[in-house]
Amino acid sequence: MKAPQIKKLKRAARRIKEKFSPRTLILLYHRVTELPTDPQLLTVTPAHFAEHLEVLQKYGQILSLRQLTLALQQGKLPDKTVVVTFDDGYADNFYHAKPLLEQYEIPATIFVAAGQIGQKSEFWWDELDRLFLQPGMLPDQGHLNIRGNTVKWEMGEAAHYDEQAFKTYRQWNITDNVDPSSRQKLYRLLFYEIRNLPNNERDEALASLQRWVGVDAVGRTSHHTLTKEELICLANSDFIEIGAHTVTHPILAALPLEKQATEIQQSKTSLESLLGFPVTSFSYPSGGRSDYMTATVTLTREAGFSSSCSAFAGYVYPHSDMFQLPRFVVRDWNKAEFSDRLVRWVNG
Ligand SMILES: [Zn+2]
Predict the structure, then answer these.
(1) pLDDT: is 11 or 219 the higher one?
(2) What average pLDDT does the chain have?
(3) Are 321 and 305 in contact (CB under 8 A)?
(4) Residue 137 forms beta bridges with which residues?
(5) Distance of CA 124 from the midpoint of ligand 1 (Å)
(6) How far is the CA of 19 from the centre of ligand 1 (A)?
(7) H or E element that contains 281
(8) pLDDT (tens digit, 9 = 90+) per residue, 77-92?
(9) How far is Cα 68 from Cα 345, in angstroms, rounded to an integer?
(10) What is the CA(122)–ligand 1 centre distance, in A?
């Protein structure tokens, strides 16, 4: 038999095995708040989040990530169970998500980028939103030097972005096929230019863009990440566990291995020294299959974590790699939409 046929047979055998295997699905949230712009679709409103939790409470088969990890280690995965996780460590997780998780008694793991704790600056993707997608004036032309290349752009009519234009386009997001003005074009262009840069080069690029726009590095309160005090209060909740999400939120695959190891190890040790107890789970920034390497997976295991989460869609089976647990991203769905998705996912 030829190699492609063997591969095909192996895939079919795996699908049959998975059809009859117990499965868990892990949900991935980022933010619980309301914002005027959300170009990365990271936000679920508090009202919708409460509805999601109501659906989950009724559904009933909820595990914490720690319980899931233990079940996988013991080879006893309870079927059709659901785990709730959050990435990044936004302050709204403390102000909006925590009270609701406690009210509905739903456990969640929150993966925190350790270097962002208590910072006044925004995450780099939020910074691009602050600089380009809010109403105001921008210079007519700009350029940025990235890794020896000069990226240039012209703003045209959208250099002046008034309240009316802002309102018209504020629902725009990165998954849209059309960029309605040079503001959205610039956001998209620089999002992909900056995405894979290491921390120091990314910060230099942002500082240069802040000078171009004429603003300082202090971010919006609506985009604050957790302070130390908020993180500690969050971790003290009976329903919340803190996991690590690197120090500077780089795309790990774009870094040399020793820098990856430092990002992974330091996020664990600095969170542990803040919290005073072991941090046993990790999630890969961005978390797509190409955002980390096989060697990165080994590094998270060697760092002493018990499990690591990815961000590509898929189920957790008894034979799943505990250091690449797939997750389903949750968007700002209302109760009916979330309920439909959950039913489809668990019965998948
Ligand atoms: Zn993240």
Answers:
(1) 219
(2) 95
(3) no
(4) 160
(5) 11
(6) 31
(7) strand 281-283
(8) 999 999 999 999 999 9
(9) 17
(10) 13
Cα–Cα dist 326/56, whole Å: 19
146-197 residue pLDDT tens: 988 999 999 999 999 999 999 999 999 999 999 999 999 999 999 999 999 9
**Tokens 């989460």, located at residue:** 309
pLDDT at position 4: 80
Environment of ion ligand 1 (residues, CB < 5 A): 87-88, 285
Domains and CATH numbers, the chain: 3-119+225-347 (3.20.20.370), 124-220 (no CATH)
Task: Provide φ and ψ at 91, rounded to 5°.
Answer: -60, -30
pTM: 0.94
Q: How many CB atoms lie within 10 A of CB 325?
A: 26
DSSP 202: H
Q: What is the DSSP string of 102-161?
A: HHHT--EEEEE-GGGTT-SSPPHHHHHHHHHSSSEE--SEEEEEETTEEEEEE-GGGGEE
Indicate the pairing of strand 240-244 with strand 108-112. Answer: parallel
pLDDT (0 to 100) of residue 175? 96
Per-residue burial over 153-188, b = 16 or more CB atoms within 10 Å of its CB, e = otherwise: bebeebbebeeebbeebbebeeeeeebebbbbbbbb
Tokens of 284: 């890969």
- Examine the pLDDT at 288 and tell me if it is beyond 80: yes
